[in-house]
Amino acid sequence: MSVLTLPPGATLGMLGGGQLGRMTALAAARLGYRTHVYTPEPDSPCAEVSAAATVADFADAAALAAFAASVDVVTLEWENVPPETVAALERMVPVRPGAAVLAVTRDRIREKSFVNGLGIATAPWRPAHSAADVAVAIAELGRPAVLKVARLGYDGKGQVRLGAESAPESAWHELAGGHALDAVVEGFIDFACEISVIVARAADGTLRSYPAVENQHEHHILSRTIVPARIAPEVAAEAELIACRITEALAVVGLLAVEMFVTRDGRVLVNELAPRPHNSGHWTMDACATSQFEQLVRAVCGLPLGATGRLCDAVMDNLIGGDVERWPELVAAPNARLHLYGKRQVRPGRKMGHVTWIAATPDSEPAR
Amino acid sequence: MSVLTLPPGATLGMLGGGQLGRMTALAAARLGYRTHVYTPEPDSPCAEVSAAATVADFADAAALAAFAASVDVVTLEWENVPPETVAALERMVPVRPGAAVLAVTRDRIREKSFVNGLGIATAPWRPAHSAADVAVAIAELGRPAVLKVARLGYDGKGQVRLGAESAPESAWHELAGGHALDAVVEGFIDFACEISVIVARAADGTLRSYPAVENQHEHHILSRTIVPARIAPEVAAEAELIACRITEALAVVGLLAVEMFVTRDGRVLVNELAPRPHNSGHWTMDACATSQFEQLVRAVCGLPLGATGRLCDAVMDNLIGGDVERWPELVAAPNARLHLYGKRQVRPGRKMGHVTWIAATPDSEPAR
Fold it and tell me: What's the predicted TM-score (pTM) here?
């Protein structure tokens, strides 16, 4: 054990109180760690299973200081925690992953530049700070394309499609609403499938990658993850290598989820990075010796990383909004493992839970 | 789903705040249930992972009423909750298992009489309420024998061995200390091994049995569970049948753990019953589709019971007292699944955690 090791009984600080924090807290508890969650949200899913909760704004300096004094290390389940919050905490307590990683992953321009700087391909893209930039980008990249905010976009929010008829000015106005804005234009990719790879990196630099999985989205929200991805073994190996290279270059301590496109001609293009547990890794709870959540706890507490091999094939279906009403059927299905997040209000598009179909192929289980 | 079904989001009341409650709360959270623990112990292992905690004496009527009003169903992790507490709660909220079950299992005299009344064998025994009763029992059962308190004994506490030299008077005085006491004398069993079977029973009467496992004790505390028990298949089947018959006869809603002796000539004798999750079932978290804790949640919330088959062989070692200091080695072992209970103070004989060795045989892992 290194000097960085936090023994069981130590307290893990969690920034953000959603389901990713909740499942991390459950994994931490199994190993004897306490979780203290910090979130602006009252009655958060994470607080219900945590030893302590601070409900306060991320800008509340006094609350942050008290939180820092009560925990041994801080991690996060939401990468858009304000950078000032992370910087303030880092002066008081280790934050893993830290501000340097988040500064890259919270900004599409920096993120894509970083990836390309490693010689790793992304979809073609251009930075855009005005309607004029959008017009130039379309001229260079062609149509269709997508205009996306550089920061704080998620699940399809903060995006405008640039189709055959779209005028750069109106698209820019729709996104920016007359304010200054950093954005990117991404060229169209005729992809065969979307995949992701989650990599864990320990404080001593050890890397462990989970297998590449295939992701299907509906309305820009992850709907289904198929394990393993239905791609050639050499493509999967390349994707895992890419994810490991980025994780190492960023010097992440914790997890990095790397979303990628596989083109029809077999190229792998990086789409997005997320320095936290990822929805496409939920299957690891039911089909790996070490779940992504336990792996995060191991990495940030300085424990050796656990095994990441796939024990069986699996299909993970998100339960979004009213999907959760299927729970009676799912809890009775012998090969289903149901996970619900304890959210009281059902809202359209809200992630309410997920189900992992064990030893399932994509065609063996009913679609949502 | 039956009308008795409590949907996810409902609140499970837990009497007792130890590791059995903690692991039940973690299983409940996965299915979207909240846990509210009631325990006299501040900073209990269960409270650290529960949505709410009441720290109060079991005789506190106002605290019990508030607790009952805040939960949808009550279960327990400690069968020695005072019967008055359970009776008071039952007037306000369903308690599963209920007072009728606990009245039998909390008293060795009633428990053994109940089992024998079903035509199921126990070790030979006699009730004892005085030194004279002990003398008669020894005359009938022979020596060695064991004198045990009828109520509130556990882990070897409340027992006196009756060896070749023991005088009934001094043994009785050692146990009773001059007070009135109900006790039993149990005859010596030259057993080949100790086993246990955990059975779940749903509110609709459905039964599901886990496989018979073998238990090894040190200083009267469970040290190791070997899965499956090293007994003939017909003996295992008889043990499972016995456990199911008792569970059904008691009309348990929840779990019943049945500890048994297997004699050298292959007879199965019931030793003790526990109407709750049991230490010998901890392996189910790592080697069954449904853990005993999830199964308890399913039973008391009116969900269909889950699959109980053994997915692989396993060996479970308790981490007692200073054993927990082995955690760095255990957390690094690829086939070990470490579970720690978040207890701050290490004390001799205190259950601090356990480790499940996956796909292990009794000889393939180091003894403690």
Answer: 0.95
